[in-house]
């Protein structure tokens, strides 16, 4: 006979509630769900050991075309905080939140950034297909890839710190200190690359990426990036778009061309073959790499992308 079973049941109940009352609000790590790997990493940078993160779309995953699993429904239902990108990136999130009965706190990491509008032709060609536009494809003309500009990552990190602090005020100072330290690393990185991009000529500033995921980065460093696929990987590039891009690459003698970790490389490889331009490396657009890859966290992702773009651009 165990000790517990010898204690009268009424007393046992009493002991249990006493334990619940005296335990700190979040003695165990706070269960947090992030919609994709980059956000998951940012929450980890800010939350440290106080959080236990689950990223719905994992390394090298494509959040544009993601389909939540029954396991995701369970994970979210057990979370205290949901961190999403916003800007209509996670078209599947509302339905998932509803299915899981999620009642926790939410942080929209991009809140407060200057949203970038999609070019008109992008919207027409890639986002709605004119007359047969449906809600699923609609992005309200906004580009969701704000995390690819280091300055926006600073906004993301501060939003996450505020969200965690509201939920767990006891550790608010620690969250803000972690965020501040991380922001300094981002600023150092930006300060390192900004002058090198500034030194490029107009010709060198051009490059081709697989889908249009680097608009904010291009805006930040004054680059001209073209992509056969639009903002959303769900829409296929039309043969006419690809032919137009190939003509442009030849005419403008663009030599910097990149594949992506989340997209099928075949289209870019086809363009490379037809133009004779060698791909200048792989960019990590919408997801981290696996832990043993080139971009296992957001800081190394930003560094890798800036470095890869710059090296290829300097050579053209
Ligand atoms: Zn994307």
Automatic annotation (TrEMBL):
Q: Please state where this protein is localized.
A: Cell envelope
Entry keyword Signal? yes
* InterPro entries noted in UniProt: AdhesinB, Bact_metal-bind_prot9, Lipoprotein_PsaA-like, ZnuA-like
Chain residue ranges for the region called Disordered: 117-147
- What is the residue range of the signal peptide feature? 1-27
Reading the lineage from the top rank, the first entry is: Bacteria
Compositional bias of kind Basic and acidic residues: 126-147
Tell me if Zinc is a UniProt keyword of this record.
Answer: no
Q: Known Gene3D superfamilies for this protein?
A: Nitrogenase molybdenum iron protein domain (3.40.50.1980)
Q: Which key words are in the record?
A: Metal-binding, Signal, Transport
As for family, the record states: Belongs to the bacterial solute-binding protein 9 family.
Protein name in the entry: Metal ABC transporter substrate-binding protein
- What organism does this protein naturally occur in? Pseudaeromonas paramecii
Taxonomy, top ranks, is: Bacteria, Pseudomonadati, Pseudomonadota, Gammaproteobacteria, Aeromonadales
